[in-house]
Amino acid sequence: MINKSEATPPHSSTATIRSVAIIGSGLAGLTAAILLQQKGYQATVYEKSRGPGGRLSAKRVGGGSADVGAQYFTIRNPEFHQFLERYAGAASYAPWHGQFGYQKASKKWEPFPDEERYVGVPRMTAISRALSADIELVAETRIQKLEKNPEGWTLVSTDDERYGPYEAVIITAPPAQARDLLADSDLPHLAGQLDEPVRHVQPCWAVAAHFQEAPFERYDGMRVQSHILSWVANNSSKPGRDDVGQWWVLHGRSDWSHANQDAPAEQVAGEMIREFLAITGTDQQPDDQVSHRWLYAKSSDPATPGHLWFAEEHIGLAGDWLSGGRVEGA
């Protein structure tokens, strides 16, 4: 936990807020918890999965893991670098010195603009694991609704367990899930404000495929011209991955993923892998594969206010969908 001698009391404008519940343990939720603790608030993070991460996600695969969510991140704001150094530690991430290319409409390859790209080591979740080390995290707990009482907000889980009360709540779930939570909490006036953001949320199918030998050697990460795929990457080229053979991660286009949102995972993976083989020109077949469906992968909403705060209810919303969609935005 943060040393109490380092904590500063809450600002007078929020003096009635001392305890905060944070729903979601992606980067936005973890950041909120850390910064609130630093300022003397009591913050508890609730996560529906077994551990933290959000879209800093990795799938366990034979002999290691594959990043199926965010593929890398950039650091454009020095404060973000300072935050990672202080709270995650330099050992949890490193530059990805891969070769990157993109296909033009003519199918001609061009190199990516030169920019430092970072990844978690030995997997993307290393960052979220490090950030969660000194916060109070309640895992495997899906919050279904909020109940208002004189002491503040009580959180009610899908198992009908109650947590709290808390004087404020920060929701870092994707907008569709946040809207459902607010609607189920008898807050239709807040839920309605998310109708437009929900309309802009896009899904993404992700597949990790293992090859005994390198199926493609020119680039390690590629934006491709395809009606199925948007991105393919050699996950094994990232630092700290000690794979035998190579794991490649494939991301489906948003429109294609939407059209195949309810298709069987085996069918989706088969189509994505066949497209990858056609793009790379290899006849090598993968010997293992895993897939993951992101229903709420990214937002195309041009409105990016950074966060939303409903002062009367003491409810806030945060997440990358409110700040440009990038990891650094979260």
Structure explained in plain terms:
By secondary structure, the chain is α/β, with parallel strands linked by helices. 22% of the residues lie in helices and 31% in strands. The protein contains 8 helices and 20 strands. It has helices at residues 27-38, 78-88, 125-131, 175-184, 188-191, 195-199, 254-259, 265-280, and strands at residues 19-23, 42-46, 58-61, 64-67, 93-95, 100-103, 109-111, 118-120, 136-138, 143-149, 152-157, 162-166, 168-171, 201-211, 221-223, 229-234, 246-252, 288-299, 307-310, 315-318. Mean pLDDT is 93; it is low at 1-14.
Quickly give the structural class. alpha/beta
Strand order of the largest sheet: 7-6-15-16-17-14-18
Q: Any idea what the radius of gyration is?
A: 21 Å
Overall form? globular
Please give the largest β-sheet.
Answer: 7 strands, mixed
Strand content: 25-35%
Number of strands: 20
Number of helices: 8
Terminal CA distance reads 22 Å
Order of helices and strands: EHEEEHEEEEHEEEEEHHHEEEEHHEEE
Average pLDDT score: 93
Low-confidence stretches: 1-14
The helix content, as a percent range, equals 10-25%
Brief characterization of the structure:
This protein is α/β, with parallel strands linked by helices.
